[in-house]
Amino acid sequence: MGIKRVLTKDFATENLRQVSVYERTGGYTGFKKALEMQPDDLVELVKKSGLRGRGGAGFPTGNKWSFVPKNAPRPTYLLCNADESEPGTFKDRVIIEKDPHLLIEGMIISAFAIGSCPMAYIYIRGEFYYGATVLDAALEEARAKGFLGKGIFGSSFDFDITVHRGAGAYICGEETGLIESVEGHRGQPRVKPPFPAVVGVFGGPTVVNNVETLACVPFIINKGAEWFKSFGTPKNTGPKLYCVSGSVKKPGVYEFPMGMNLKELIYDHCGGITGDRKLKAVIPGGASAPMLTADEIDLPLNFDAVMKAGSMLGSAGIIVLDESVCIVDAVWRLAKFFAHESCGQCTPCREGTNWMESVLDRLERGEGRPQDADLLLDMSDNIGGKSLCALGDAAIGPVISSVKKFRDEYLHHVTHKSCLPETKRYRRLDMAVAAH
Amino acid sequence: MPVSKATLTRIQEVAARYPSKQSAIIPALWAVQHEQGYVTEAAMGEIAQALQLPPSLIEATASFYSMFLTRPEGRHDVVICVNAPCMLRGADEMKDYLQRALGVRDGQTTSDGAITWHSTIECLGVCGGAPMMQVDHQFEENLTPERIDAIIDRLRKQPAIHGAAATPAATDPKKPQAVPPVKGEKVRSGAEGARARGKRSQA
Q1: The model's pTM
Q2: Quick one: which of A111, A121, A259, A428 has the fewest CB in 10 Å?
């Protein structure tokens, strides 16, 4: 259908995880080209390409790199954020497991561009044990080939990569929480400033990039900024992985250019809604993104357009909810997730997320009070922007949007002490089943 | 049970890859858990000694992360996700089925000591294959009652992958002999999975 795949183009190739096969598909050519270039020119090239971080915030990658001070007293570090844990997001694991050398090549080029970077760490969530073993095996091969180590290809560039496994904490996906965790501490985010680009891990300047972001880098070096910009729109460039989950016939990871139409993605590529039911809502960017209703989904999935529509593209974790889903139940689960994952450092987030969870819980149990919908909005107002990192802000995204867009459903839970009749398909999580 | 020499050596090797010894705490906890199945207070003391750090630092870090176990569990660990993306594809029904099939409640171990299971709200990052569960280190996707039965049968017969009951060959996580196939692919080989994949590749 004329759609050019970039990141996933070789995924069907057998044994792509082996360095020799990866090289046959054109792998490690970007890295060799980059070594011939000046680091500053590489940063400029990535800036020109318009690449924006794929981890959620959409910050321009080249700019992030250029914030690293030259001649800092300590070495610079590159951290790859592979702590993918946001409900609805499952794209980075696919790159890691299918094409680990693409990530490794992207990291070598990035470290060379940033400069004076002796070591990079891949912070991979503890549950991705298999992914970590794939990366370890691929790194071993890359070392044997001389792509990593001392004086890479006769240059003065010394560089290696270490896989650092997390151990079950969503907050470590926040960049300063991740830095704390690499240092061996509890993953509690730091006060910013100083920003990681100035003082990050081990006191050195630090760049934290997402897996998919780093995987884009070899293509930019190989094919140029103009080619990269031929995907998407001027401010939202490049290929993009979209994770579609929930009530669709064909959930999974899809690659399209940045700015894919959400409606088209759901109906034309994911086969439409499960059981041909009606669409109720879509969460377009992982659990923290505000919900869109069925008539708001005819929009391009890029950072700016989704923000204009009142939500965010985030990690492009698209969760589709059909008419048989109880909104209060779905939001309760997301709230419970954020309450569970709050690191406990800041009071508004630690207390607020738990309160929200308990209010949603009582609504779903049929014990809600008439003022609960407004109470949730009031609580959100007291959590948002009042803590060190964005976890609190993330927690209120689905709550505020669902109360505003589905207030009638919330009220129905209060007046009828039950879910809407058409949404009684799901059992409650904590409904005990007799053990026998 | 003291930590083995091999694991302590491994911890020193890992520590050399960081400019600060403290960074080796999490890898060290993993190494001990892979050897013994869980991390006791005594083992944390040994880690502290190996890294020349106060034991309180090890425990402070260990207690923050939900994947470190401090007491023995069943030979196999089964975790089923019930967050929203999984719930939308029937995770609650699968969780109830799993509970009935194992006959013990969330967080408990079966009487034969084979399986400890619990449900989690912590998304496991496999929403595209929902409903799903994590079995030891493997993701089992697109669950059905039949698949759950088969997995339970298999686990009851299998030794633990880590800890005292594990076979030596399976205890070294750092030496993957060969790269096994992507698990997602294997479990999605059902008719629906194949159909979904086939259509997607044409898209």
Answers
A1: 0.91
A2: A428
